[in-house]
Amino acid sequence: MLKAGIVGMGRWGRVLVESVQRRNDAGLRFVAGCTGTPDKARDWAGEQGIRLLEGYDAVLADPEVEAVVLATPHSQHAAQVIAAAKLGKHVFVEKPFAMAKADAEAMVAAARAAGTVLALGHNRRFLPATAEMKRLLAEGALGTVLHAEGHISGPAAAGWKDGMWRADRSESPLGGMGAMGIHMIDMLIHLMGPFAEVAVQSHRRVLPHVDDTTAMLGRFASGATCGFATLSLAPQTWRVALYGTKGSLEMRGQQQLVFVPVPGEGAGEAWTRDYPKLDIEAAELSAFAAAAAGGPAYPLPLAEAVHGIAVFEAMIGAAASGSSYAVA
């Protein structure tokens, strides 16, 4: 059982802890942690059996803590990951991985030098529907994929107030990209491979602090094109669709796939399939614990984690300049 420290006990830190804390099969148990507002977390930490420590350095110095789980502001990730690696601690870090490609590369280099596991929390990779999309792509069921579409939105930004880190444009330079959109970028990389270039429109139409509307037109290294949007003040939406020469495949929500074939000889029939709900937070933390124990590698290659941040960084530049940016 991997003994972990939780760093950040806001809403998402608590979701991560509660997904595994009372499961004997999770392979991970939280034993200690810290947060920026300890008085607000003291009772909850006690209920979870977590020793509340006085900061990140104290968590890293705790001899019982073998790994840390970071549910902290994006801009803190690089320094926190590197500090943990230097002490031989495994790290699970929430998305976005970092705010710049150079920082992401430094994090990976630190973990590799230390021989520790570094895992990034893109939980939608663990959906059964995602695995089915990957399988069908590998089998050539769509033919040559010409275009991909991704959309992830939600209304959470309505609650972002002055003084909250998510309401800070330096932490949320493209509105919903940090909180939501980066998940879809990772999904598109997972399904379609690396991006080559992006053009972005990102605007603050209603919100007082950060952009509420972000849209991207992109091109993959394969030559396929991409349309993507993330709205931080709209109904909850998750949709990813692939359009190929043999048919289209669309994930509607996180538990349904719809296939539509191109008419013709041997095309087969259209179908809709529903998949069971899965605790994807427990799944990703269990995969992290298994990798730390010497089992299967965590199923998000670090090269793809770095590339996701290269795309994010290129999107920021493209939005600011009003031109297309190559993804380095």
TrEMBL record:
Designated name of the protein: Oxidoreductase
Keyword Iron-sulfur found: no
Keyword terms of this UniProt record: Oxidoreductase
The keyword Oxidoreductase appears for this protein: yes
Boundaries of every Gfo/Idh/MocA-like oxidoreductase N-terminal domain copy: 3-122
GFO/IDH/MocA-like oxidoreductase domain sequence ranges: 131-250
Pfam families in UniProt: GFO_IDH_MocA (PF01408), GFO_IDH_MocA_C3 (PF22725)
